[in-house]
């Protein structure tokens, strides 16, 4: 008589019970070569990476229309920065350390310790700084090429037109000798008037120069703000520009950027000799060979 066999499943593998001729039973695993289960290895502890706070951008600055462009942009983008005053009335823009950053001896300029590839980079010229910060953050400078071209057009319109012409109008109104000054004053006041007319037409159908608020608006705002203080009646002729200026002036970032370093601007020196020296520094420079 053949021995009887009964099979059942237990402990995750099949066993066979065999009854021998003497009635004794043996229990064997079906797979005699089954290896014992290994103990699981303890899970590795995951490393916690603590992200370091970015180092602040260094802003070389004096509170002027060109300086306000960058302080406004940094505030709008909420980028950490530290202000490094460059007193242009004392000639600090000619210091060798500053010329390494801004070879044209003009502020503003920036040093970004976290530049392309994680390496520091310095940028001078306010328009170039605005473009750089716009690319860095993806804010106020469109990535779509058609829209970016539009912003560039009005940014360079300010750089080549509104800024220089309003600056010259201010110079001949506030600094140049009064006698024999009529032609220059009229020339630059008229050109500033023409440019405000161009801007007024542009703003007749939009809240901002390029539809959405952009670096082009930031570039222009300080100069228009300066004109309003210098020739308030002139701005009254351009209601769209005036409304635009007031609209941007209410932005929290504008208020902070405009207020930056305000305490640094001292009234014109009462000492005639000191004032003469300041004007030589600001307006009497020639090439330094």
What do you see in this structure?
The chain is globular, with a radius of gyration of 36 Å. It has helices spanning 65-77, 96-99, 126-137, 145-174, 182-202, 215-230, 232-235, 239-249, 252-259, 272-283; strands spanning 5-10, 13-19, 25-29, 57-61, 81-85, 109-112, 121-124. The strands form two sheets. It has a four-stranded mixed β-sheet, with helices on one face. The protein has a three-stranded antiparallel β-sheet with strand order 1-2-3, with no helix packed on it. It folds into two domains: 55-141, 3-Layer(aba) Sandwich (Glutaredoxin); 142-260, Up-down Bundle (Glutathione S-transferase Yfyf (Class Pi), Chain A, domain 2), CATH 1.20.1050.10. With 289 residues, the chain is of the alpha+beta class. Residues 1-32 have low confidence and may be disordered. The chain is 45% helix and 12% strand. Helix 1 (65-77) packs parallel to helix 3 (126-137).
